[in-house]
Amino acid sequence: MPKVFVVEDDERLQEELCKLLELEGFEWLVCAGFEDVAGQILDAAPDCVVMDAMIPGGDGRMICRALRRSSDIPVIMLTCLDSEFDQVTAMDLGADAYLTKPYRPALLMAHIRAALRRSAPDSRSVLTHRGVSLDLGSGEICCGGRCSRLTRNETRILAMLINSAGSTVTRQELMCELWESDAFVDDNTLTVNVNRLRKGLASIGAPDDFIVTRRGEGYLV
Amino acid sequence: MSARTEEEARFTPGAYLRDRWGSVLAWLLAALGIGAMTAVLGVTSDGSLVCALFVAVMGAVAMAAGYLRRRSFYAKLAHSRAALEKSYHLASVIERPSFLEGQLLFDACCEVCDASGNQLASEQERMRALQSFVDLWTHEIKTPIAAAKLTLSRMRGQDATSLRLDLERIEASCERALYTTRVGLVEGDYAIEEVQLLDLCREACKSLSHLLISSGVTPRFELGPHDKVLADASWIKFVLRQLISNSAKYGASSIVFKSWVENPGTPQGCIVLEMADDGQGIPADEVPRVFQRGFCGSNGRAQGSATGMGLYLSSQLCEALGVNISIASVLGQGTRVMLAFPCDSTRLR
Predict the structure, then answer these.
(1) 0.90 surpassed by complex ipTM
(2) Distance (Å, rounded) from C-alpha A31 to C-alpha A13?
């Protein structure tokens, strides 16, 4: 499991960030106090660092510079200020990405995944639910030895349903997820995508009720 | 200010004489009187004429001396009034005159200038304090909004979906509060850089995805991947968000983003970004007024939630950036908003 190191001084934000990371399948670490943050990060050797640009007793950009002296671990900076100056200096100091609060969680996760892919390109993640496995990289679904390939949109829909297995996902949530990856689909396209996904699942012998429709609410696996 | 409604007074010899018609009349009567009296007392007609002329010349000399004494002061006053941008500095650029009426006026003018200068300084101080409070507040509110977004991202279902829409609206309101206090202040903190229009439009739509999806609006992007403009990314994104949420509010089901180059290679060359929606449109007589502060058209009044600030702020920000914003609409068919970014960076303010 990839390890993400979180440096955030707002307790609520830190707590929520860690919960989200856990849910998305990451291991998380937080710093113990804000003394020698760079040293703590190097000791923990995480796969990615998510850091607030303004932390007590220090400046995230200085920590970033200290880290860069001995490591090329991906760093994602978070900040409230959206002045261009901060962005430029953070990038100069070696941050991989820079997000302004209140960032969209999906965007943050996308940046973390992209940073991890850059540093460890061969990491493959596979989701499994009720005997169906989904390879997020290739979009391949397999069930009992039979395999089929999904399109990018279908893969994202199925991944979101499996990640929230047991709870109903609304159509709006699915659409937002697709929009986040630049597929600005409308309601009809979503229906078409879900129907194709169902056909794909049926073709490899997945159970008929693998995706349940909750009328007027959404879908559930 | 009310004096301005009458014809503006000018200090000319004719005006000076008209102003002192009593004295002029008195001198003339004196000249005539002396002439008549000396004639009655048996002086020759030539002698009477000389006496009358002597008195008349004395009168003219007195008038001319009075005029010349005042002229330099009034000339300086008129010149300073025309040259000064801020009239409350007037008292500090003119000198106290040597004649009585001038001194009375000058003292009153000094008092008015001091008072308005002080008032202005304290208003500016108050405005600065308010601005820094709003800056701090919008800065602080971002952290709990970010935390709430993270919490919501772990939740699924109808309730979470509608909470996300509300949060998106809260965020938009906070952003508007920030820009409302910023606009019109000394043009300051923007940073001109090269921005990719496609990325900017996509990002603006994503940041309003809940509003757009729940209102059934689908964006389409017909922009080249290489269309780049010189602008401040966060300001333009704010403008786009105002335009996009207007489209969503007023019945659009699609928004098409397009761009093209106008007058390439000339100093007027610009890249135009067009946002065309198929919403209810704006009545023709209201189109010229949509960028006015606080203007809510008949559409906005029918909705009840319009503040008349979105387009006003957008046009102000565009003006500060040197971007030309224009709007065209056909009632019942849709609205097009065009943003023209100058290609020549020297034309940016």
Answers:
(1) no
(2) 14
